[in-house]
Specification:
This is DUF2157 domain-containing protein. Keywords: Membrane, Transmembrane, Transmembrane helix. InterPro entries: DUF2157. Pfam families: DUF2157. It comes from Peribacillus saganii. The protein is an all-alpha fold. It has a domain of about 45 residues. It is built from 19 helices and two strands. It has a two-stranded parallel sheet with strand order 1-2.
């Protein structure tokens, strides 16, 4: 009974033991290494045979080409093929003085046929030479296309030429299953589409017939390739923008129907794809910017931003409730809010630049110290950026040129802002030190340009920068409150 159990256990172990499949070159390398380790006594005698029996040479189907690994010589061959191809294209592009048109055409055609014929003949015996010849043939094919365009004076048809080149390259890429040709062929295809459809102000609707084919090719022929998927979506959004968003007249309001359709497409078919959702929101905010923010500035003067007044609260609710407190959406909505404030001030016919900047400065100060708990870090960053940029600009006199007064408001702003920054420095906040350093440099530049020789001004300015740099670094290392306001 014990012997029967032992036999069953050995049978089960053999059944579960599977040899690791390796290529012949890997098998021979392992065999040499195991023999060497046995010869120097690192493993027991005859153990090399036991170890090599754990591996089995993978059989390669005659119909399936074995994967070819790149080595230094093969890389040189590929580079050489590319250089030869570029030489052919350069030859086509230049003016050939010594040959007639038929002779030029014949040379290129002969080179094309020779390259493809040689590549096919050497495919089994010398695969890398075959691949190099295929590459040369692809470049010869492209040169032939552009030369035919020159012969028949087909100027302005570069898009068609690129598409024809791509259609001649991609079948070869699928036949060889060659990654380089895949990349080159699809690059030609999308470049040709860009040149043919998007150089005009309004792209043709033919692109809408082509896009489903491109999506199907990426899904079925290229095994759901994500790069092609995103490229196709990029073409779709580019078509929508060029056709509707940037067009004049009522055509732009087609976007009111298109954008909900894109969100529905994402919700029902591509809900796991975050990039499509991001693209939809980018398109939405771009449309809002073009029509209800920038459009008001470029349109009728004094128009109240009524659409933004309604949209902004809705967008905040969508970002907070439905998009799980999205930080990017909150940032976009905050920027829209600032634009709404500026547009409202324009509607009220406020003509002094200093007033606009002063209101933004106050907003920056407030949100630097008071933030919503769900967006604390972002609001603090926005607050520091707004108050610092506007605070520095408000210390320049030209900001107040439209205000008729003898009071140096810019100087008062500079003094008050310096007091606030010195308070931050006193509390040992790093941002306070940085802001105070910039403020010192700002006033130093004004004074030095008026009262100092340039050489002395540059020398003192350099010393000042070094001292401020040491001060900032010392504060950074020894700060106690980690920049918390």
């Amino acid at each position: 009974m014990a012997r029967f159990s032992k036999t069953m256990m050995e049978t089960r172990n053999r059944r579960h033991f599977m040899k690791r499949l390796v290529f012949l070159s890997q098998y021979e390398f392992l065999k040499r290494e195991f023999d060497y380790l046995e010869s120097i006594g690192r493993i027991a005698p005859h153990q090399s045979r036991e170890l090599i029996e754990c591996y089995e040479v993978k059989e390669i189907d005659s119909k399936q080409k074995a994967p070819i690994k790149l080595n230094f010589v093969q890389i040189l061959l590929i580079i050489g093929a590319i250089l030869i191809g570029l030489g052919i294209l350069s030859f086509v592009a230049s003016n050939w003085q010594g040959l007639h048109e038929f002779e030029k055409f014949s040379v290129l055609l002969l080179g094309l046929i020779s390259a493809y014929a040689g590549a096919w003949l050497f495919e089994e015996k010398w695969p890398w030479l075959s691949k190099v010849l295929y590459y040369i043939g692809v470049f010869s094919y492209g040169g032939e296309i552009f030369f035919i365009g020159q012969m028949f004076h087909l100027g302005g048809e570069a898009g068609n030429a690129l598409l024809a080149w791509a259609l001649g390259t991609l079948p070869l890429a699928f036949y060889l299953k060659d990654k380089i040709l895949y990349i080159f062929g699809f690059s030609l295809l999308y470049l040709g589409i860009e040149v043919k459809f998007f150089l005009d102000e309004s792209p043709s609707y033919l692109l809408l017939l082509l896009l489903p084919i491109l999506f199907a090719a990426g899904h079925f022929l290229m095994n759901r390739n994500k790069i092609l998927l995103y490229t196709n979506f990029f073409l779709l959004y580019q078509f929508i923008e060029a056709k509707y968003m940037f067009s004049s007249g009522g055509a732009s309001y087609v976007m009111v129907m298109v954008i909900p359709l894109l969100f529905a497409l994402w919700y029902y078919f591509l809900k796991k794809n975050i990039y499509v959702l991001i693209a939809n929101f980018v398109l939405l905010y771009q449309f809002i910017e073009m029509k209800f923010a920038i459009g008001i500035v470029e349109g009728t003067e004094g128009e109240f931003p009524i659409v933004l007044t309604v949209l902004i609260p809705l967008l905040f609710i969508v970002g907070h409730k439905w998009m799980n407190k999205s930080i990017p959406l909150f940032a976009a909505n905050f920027v829209l809010t600032l634009q709404w404030i500026i547009l409202t001030m324009m509607y009220l016919d406020i003509g002094v630049l200093g007033y606009y900047l002063s209101l933004l400065f106050v907003i920056g100060i407030v949100i630097s110290h008071i933030q919503h708990p769900d967006y604390r870090a972002l609001m603090r960053t926005f607050g520091l950026a707004i108050q610092f940029s506007t605070g520095i600009i408000l210390t320049f006199p030209y900001v107040w040129n439209d205000l008729v007064t003898d009071i140096p408001i810019w100087l008062i702003y500079g003094i008050l802002y310096s007091v606030y920054i010195l308070y931050l420095v006193y509390r040992q906040y790093l941002m306070g030190v940085i802001m105070f350093s910039v403020l010192i440099l700002r006033f130093y530049v004004d004074i030095s340009l008026v009262f100092m020789n340039k050489s002395i001004a540059f020398f003192i300015g350099g010393l000042l920068l070094i001292i401020l740099g040491f001060w900032i670094e010392k504060t950074r290392r020894g700060e106690k409150k980690n920049e918390k306001l």
